[in-house]
Amino acid sequence: MSDPLADDPRTATVASGESISLSDSHKKVLLQELGVGEAVRSVYHDGWGYAVLTGKGLLLFRNLLAPKVTRVTGPLRILRSAYGMFNSVEILVEGKPHKLHGSKLDPTGEFLEAAGRLLPPGSPLRPGGGKRTSTWIRRHPVSVVVMAAAALVAGLSGPGQPDAVARGGTDHAAVVPDFRGASLVTAAATARLGSWRVAAADASSAYRTVSASQADWRVCFQNPSPGERARPYNGTLTFYAVPEAEPCPSQLDGTRRVVMPDLVGERFDAASRTLAALGLDRVTPFHAHTGQRLDDRRQSLADWQVCRQQPEAGIEVPVTTQVDLWLIGPDASCTAPSPKPKPKPKPKSESAPGSQATSQPKPRTQPSRDSASDGGTSGGSGDGSWDDGSSGSSDGTSGGSGTGSGVDFGQFCSPIGATATTSDGRPAKCFMGKDGAARWGYRSG
């Protein structure tokens, strides 16, 4: 049976990299609780329960038999950084401390510290803070009276008088510098000189493991934000960074963006490796001449050359972008014209006059016999065969004009009324037929 966490892209990383194993019921509840695109970064033990850190906060699982989820939105309230043999990180949720530990992907709690802020030692949010304050007041009544009198004097002082008490309370707070755009190594070193504790995390949704000493990374975001007032000696400054060759995402935990490389002229296998290293794994090859999609499963495209690409080189694109490559086979030119299809043979037409080819003669049709115009005698009543008038002789057979001999019944004739003799000696006369054409017919008298 397959692991549902391994099959889901939001949990695939922890399914393969974490040593903590969740029960089937916990896995089902976790997948139901995760939002669209909310990837899991690490899993921790939380007493008898579990804690799951995502890009949008922390999920606490209670009740081992029927898991229930409590969602804790950031920033997390950290009571104590990693300590002890388990490197536990103690956080505060609804006034109750939780000790989280045991993550293989986050063994020292860097992810947790990057997602939260350390509460100052005197913060009233810390458990028992109010009780300790009341106890101190009972034990130091004189000091309380003095402080109250000082506050009263400060309240009665004019607007132009300096507030010594307030000024003294802010002397230790510093304005947080702006490290955005700086090298991660330089920013971390500078922050440590200012007494800050430093943590680093991936600024994109890739959630790559980042160390504050990571070379060739650049700061995109930071927490606390630039310009805020904070006390460095009890706070953590978290840098969210990406590799220097990679553009910063538009927002924290946003989709990774990369610069499209120039692949024209590269072999397809080398271009594919370059794209895969950048996280661009949606690649479609096309034939450079025909534009048809190529199937690498049916033919090897490793040695094919890239002629064109989309998007073009130098453009910033998210890693979810579809990349199209137009390829040409080995030893072929990208600029060569596409092969033209063979022309279809033209249909045969009737031969022109004077050509050697001869068309098949049309079958001769038997014309109707016309009645004679001079006496009603039917033309062509003799036993001569009908002809289409295509042949004849100079003595009257070609036109039938006047009186001639050697004509055949059915031949065309002219003029109407002319007489002639057939080749077998019978009398013939030129009659007008029903079809409007004059032909030789038998002359009865």
TrEMBL record:
Transmembrane segments: none
Composition bias type Polar residues, residue spans: 352-369
Organism domain of life: Bacteria
Pfam families given in the database record: PASTA
PASTA domain span: 254-329
Composition skew (Gly residues), residue ranges: 397-407
Name the record gives this protein: PASTA domain-containing protein
Coiled coil: none
Signal peptide segment: none
